[in-house]
Amino acid sequence: MNQIKTIDGHLNAADLKFAILATRFNDFIVDRLVGGAVDYLIRHGGSEENLTIVRVPGAFEMPLACKKLAASGKYDGIVAVGAVIRGGTPHFDFVAAEATKGLAHVSLESGVPVGFGLLTTDNIEQAIERAGTKAGNKGVEAASAVLETVRVLQQI
């Protein structure tokens, strides 16, 4: 086993540039996700001058903005955060599915890693839990995933 080459993504954000793409809708939740992502990247060697926060109206607008950010060539990775909370109509299902597919498509087509921090919850309580209470902060998790992926891709 000692002869098997292993590629690991070292969690060091020094000299990397990230866009944090965040929705305005449900901003009382999303602001906590943004804060978690920013804090994580800075604690891991990143700097404020290498972070850009981009706000879009809602989750449905995320894929297009993400595509533009990826195509700009300015960012090593994109952290996408937002919150889609189920209501009484099927609107939730369409928005959550299309935003998820769109963000994944951008990452695959552009080669720019996208950290997925879009909450899709049944209620506000679940969203609050995932934005920094019982279930951790999904903005932190998305930032961690994108940082590790950037570092892995640099070695492949």
UniProtKB/TrEMBL annotation:
Residues reported to bind (2S)-2-hydroxy-3-oxobutyl phosphate: 88-89, 130
Entry GO terms, CC: cytosol; riboflavin synthase complex
Binding site for 5-amino-6-(D-ribitylamino)uracil: 25, 59-61, 83-85, 116
A Pfam family reported for this protein in Swiss-Prot or TrEMBL: DMRL_synthase
Origin: domain of life: Bacteria
Molecular function per GO: 6,7-dimethyl-8-ribityllumazine synthase activity
Catalytic reaction equation(s): (2S)-2-hydroxy-3-oxobutyl phosphate + 5-amino-6-(D-ribitylamino)uracil = 6,7-dimethyl-8-(1-D-ribityl)lumazine + phosphate + 2 H2O + H(+)
InterPro entries, per the entry: LS (IPR034964), LS/RS (IPR002180), LS/RS_sf (IPR036467)
CDD domains noted in UniProt: Lumazine_synthase-I
Pathway given in the UniProt record: Cofactor biosynthesis; riboflavin biosynthesis; riboflavin from 2-hydroxy-3-oxobutyl phosphate and 5-amino-6-(D-ribitylamino)uracil: step 1/2
Keywords: Riboflavin biosynthesis, Transferase
EC number: 2.5.1.78
One record GO biological process: riboflavin biosynthetic process
Active site: 91 (proton donor)
Protein family (similarity comment): Belongs to the DMRL synthase family.
Task of the protein: Catalyzes the formation of 6,7-dimethyl-8-ribityllumazine by condensation of 5-amino-6-(D-ribitylamino)uracil with 3,4-dihydroxy-2-butanone 4-phosphate. This is the penultimate step in the biosynthesis of riboflavin.
NCBIfam families documented for this protein: lumazine-synth (TIGR00114), PRK00061.1-4 (NF000812)
Protein name: 6,7-dimethyl-8-ribityllumazine synthase
Species assigned in the record: Bilophila wadsworthia (strain 3_1_6)
